[in-house]
Amino acid sequence: MNTKKLADDIRRLATNDKIDHDGWLKRMQSDWPACRAAADILRKTGSEEDTKALVFFANFVFEKEAKAWSHMGDEKDIEYRRKEISACEKALEINPAHAACLNNQGITYIQLEEWPPAISCFERAIAAPHGYNPEQAHESYYENVIAKAWANLAVSRWNNKDFEEALTAIEEAVKRDSSNKETQEYMRNHMPYRKVTLG
After folding, report:
1. Which residues contact 64 (CB under 8 A, 6 or more apart)?
2. Count of CB atoms within 10 A of residue 117's CB?
3. Which tens digits make up the pLDDT trace of 65-122?
4. Which of 80, 95, 110 is the last residue of a domain?
5. Residues 171, 104 share a domain
6. pTM of structure
7. Same domain, yes or no, for 107 and 187?
């Protein structure tokens, strides 16, 4: 596959809503190394247009592939959860600062009870620089993603027995989203060693 042409196609994918998305998904699945090489071409230009194309492309991979796996099987189905993690990795190869993708990947690690990689995902989501997340076009949605990442970080740290760090994460989660009873209930249900007082 011609990677320069593929890089041009990624630019078109980001700007043309009439592109065949299903065809693109098959293309990615059939030759991911070529897609990654094309993304590297765009990254090296450093242009604003190409950065936007990379952000779009990573989100396309996340939405079309990773999220598709997330709806298959139940949360303890290891085969599907591993495929979901791999699909998230593809999106993160293109855009390592995709906060929603990092948050979802971390949740998958929570489902597998693999606490250290979950913690890493949530910490990366929280630290992701501005400008690299499609959600930032909708600031309230992006803030919600970050608040959830803090809540998920609290759960992961607590279950990893990092209790002091978990309490710090709880405080940050509540500060960012004190009115969200669903987030508070989620943290209570996933921290079995202590009744968590929130809000």
Report:
1. 21, 24, 25
2. 16
3. 999 998 898 877 899 999 999 999 999 999 999 999 999 999 999 999 999 999 999 9
4. 95
5. yes
6. 0.86
7. yes
